[in-house]
Amino acid sequence: MQENNPTAASSASNLIQRLDPRVKLALLLTTFLAALLPQRPAVVALAALLVLGHLALARAWGQLCRLRWLLLILALFSLAVWSVLAQGPTPLFWRVSRESLAFGLATFLKLGTMMVAGLVLLATTPVEELFLGLVKLRLPYAGAFAFALALRWVPEVFATAQRVKEAQEARGLVWEQGGPLTRLKRHLPLLAPIFLLTLRRSQTMAWALETRGFQRSARRTYLLQIRMAPRDWLALGLAAALLAGFIALHLAGWDRIPGLRM
């Protein structure tokens, strides 16, 4: 993290938060590769366990609890779809085979692992640090700024939706009566004011950037400064070794499901 920014450094409470944002991005990429390579659920589960260990070091279990229903839906969807679409020589029932069921489980573990890895990155890295890390990785300044702005914009959209919902409740609209389809229909009218308010805020943001001369100068200065520390190089070395292990398993064919046909 920022070696010459004592305030930011003191606010980091664990090892993961103190890592350089470029290292965190490299860890995210390593996790994606390690999760996408294998077919066998046991090997994907190993990548998932490594990510859960990463999550534990980051002390972000509370953030994971917010995704529990999304992960449950993802598990049911993956098992239902891929257990039918994939084929294998060991039938269990209907069109489901042992191999296709294993592939459906592996698909859920892959998607869940990548989601949790992204969650760890966002939970441990302030937007300003992530933006500076992207710039240091030679991403164009405008692209890095747009990415950081999009991350900031997501909670703004949710806050706007909450304000619109509270305004409708103050006018007597009841959300919780009726079945799920009826309640869903009551939420549809919220889309128009949320969309218009978001467009208005976007226009205001564009005017603010223009008045401050955004992109008028090619040379930039930054409040934060980052520099690689020994712990960052150690984390990169460990990630490279783990990725090499997953690649070796893949090249040897030990991570594949025998007899699986797509």
Question: How would you describe the shape?
Answer: flat
Helix-strand string: HHHHHHEEHHHHHH
Average pLDDT number: 83
Percent range for β-strand residues: under 5%
Q: How many domains make up the 3D coordinates?
A: 2
Give helix % range. Answer: over 70%
- How does the helix and strand content classify structurally? mainly alpha
Largest sheet geometry: 2 strands, antiparallel
Secondary structure tally, helices: 12
Going across the major beta sheet, what is the strand order? 1-2
Span between termini: 44 Å
Radius of gyration: 23 Å
Annotation, overall tally of beta strands: 2
Low-confidence stretches: 1-12
Give a short overview.
With 262 residues, this protein is mostly helical. Helices cover 71% and strands 2% of the residues.
Structure explained in plain terms:
The longest helix is centred in the middle third of the chain and has 30 residues, at 141-170. It is built from 12 helices and 2 strands. The protein folds into 2 domains: 12-126 and 227-252, no CATH class; 135-211, no CATH class. Helix 3 (21-36) packs antiparallel against helix 4 (41-58), helix 3 (21-36) packs antiparallel against helix 7 and helix 8 (127-136) packs antiparallel against helix 9. The chain is flat. The protein has a two-stranded antiparallel sheet with strand order 1-2. Helix content is 71%, strand content 2%. The chain is mainly alpha-helical.
